[in-house]
């Protein structure tokens, strides 16, 4: 193929760029140096700005967003709330007893005074209810166990317990408390109790064989009731105690003691057996309840066996069962 003529045309001639003069080169160098200086100052300013922002952020995080907790202890609740509001803080209040801080005043705070608190944050305050006191419950008339439980429920305790005799209060019942009912005392206060042992036992002595009048006087003095009956006794002299019920031991006031006072032996009239033979006289005496003993008369004894006298004498009184002496001639 035949190429067109243009394919064989020489390339166009580009004129050579003019060479910059020395002045132009110096000016360009100065411009480049100025641009570098401007970029350096911008970098310094940027670093300073970032550093400042970092310092401000650190200050805010560690100091700037906090305020100092005010001192509120010993202030009244109203004053404490006012001071907290002025510091930009909320106050949350709880209560507790205190022996030293007056009622209604702040005992303590959390956080404490001088501590850091976030702006708008909260302080917990404990406000005094005053000294803790509890009324002593009614104890007299309760059993010992019930009184101890009542004291525990009142946050008190039972102190020393003593026992005493009582004629009117049942055993085991509280008769006295060391602190009157209704008195307000500290928690844990010990209240001493006096508990009844019931009536005091009365000693009952053995009065058998003793004078009945003395027995009656002594037993009545001890507070016992006495019932006296009488009975004959072949062994206990008249006027003395044959028996008592109950026997020796102990009892209570008001108990009944029964005494049997001796009337002595039963007395029987000695029958008239004068001029009777010995055998007949002995039978009459046996029938009358006597024993007999035969003895010869001191004078005029002739041995005929007739009774001339007796001892004790005929028609006198003698204890039944006693021995009658028959004197015979």
Automatic annotation (TrEMBL):
A Pfam family annotated for this UniProt entry: PASTA
Keyword Membrane among record annotations: yes
Keywords: Kinase, Membrane, Serine/threonine-protein kinase, Transferase, Transmembrane, Transmembrane helix
Sample GO molecular function, one term: protein serine/threonine kinase activity
Membrane-traversing stretches: 40-61
Domain PASTA, chain residue ranges per copy: 67-129, 130-197, 198-263, 264-329
Keyword Membrane: yes
Top-rank taxon, per record: Bacteria
InterPro entries: PASTA_dom
Name this protein carries in UniProt: Serine/threonine protein kinase PrkC, regulator of stationary phase
Source organism per UniProt: uncultured Friedmanniella sp
Lineage of origin: Bacteria, Bacillati, Actinomycetota, Actinomycetes, Propionibacteriales
């Amino acid at each position: 193929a035949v190429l067109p003529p243009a394919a064989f045309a020489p390339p166009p001639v580009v004129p050579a760029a003019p060479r910059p003069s020395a002045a132009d080169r110096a000016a360009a160098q100065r411009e480049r140096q100025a641009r570098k200086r401007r970029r350096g100052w911008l970098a310094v300013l940027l670093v300073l700005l970032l550093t400042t922002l970092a310092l401000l952020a650190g200050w805010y995080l560690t100091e700037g967003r906090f305020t100092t907790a005010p001192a509120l202890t010993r202030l009244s609740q109203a004053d404490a709330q006012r001071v907290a509001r002025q510091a930009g803080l909320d106050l949350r209040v709880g209560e507790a007893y205190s022996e030293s801080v007056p009622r209604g005043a702040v005992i303590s705070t959390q956080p404490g005074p001088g501590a850091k608190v976030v702006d708008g944050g909260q302080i917990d305050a404990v406000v005094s209810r005053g000294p803790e006191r509890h009324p002593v419950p009614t104890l007299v008339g309760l059993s010992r166990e019930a009184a101890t439980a009542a004291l525990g429920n009142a946050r008190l305790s039972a102190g020393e317990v003593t026992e005493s005799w009582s004629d009117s209060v049942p055993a085991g019942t509280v008769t006295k408390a060391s602190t009157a009912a209704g008195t307000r005392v500290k928690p844990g206060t010990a209240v001493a109790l006096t508990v009844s042992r019931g009536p005091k036992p009365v000693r009952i002595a053995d009065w058998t064989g003793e004078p009945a009048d003395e027995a009656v006087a002594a037993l009545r003095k001890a507070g016992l009731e006495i019932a006296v009956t009488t009975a004959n006794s072949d062994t206990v002299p008249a006027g003395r105690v044959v028996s008592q019920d109950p026997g020796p031991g102990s009892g209570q006031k008001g108990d009944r003691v029964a005494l049997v006072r001796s009337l002595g032996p039963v007395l029987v009239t000695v029958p008239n057996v004068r001029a009777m033979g010995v055998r007949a006289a002995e039978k009459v005496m046996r029938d009358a309840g006597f024993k007999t003993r035969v003895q010869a008369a001191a004078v005029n004894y002739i041995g005929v066996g007739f009774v001339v006298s007796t001892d004790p004498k005929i028609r006198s009184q003698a204890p039944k069962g006693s021995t009658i002496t028959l004197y015979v001639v």
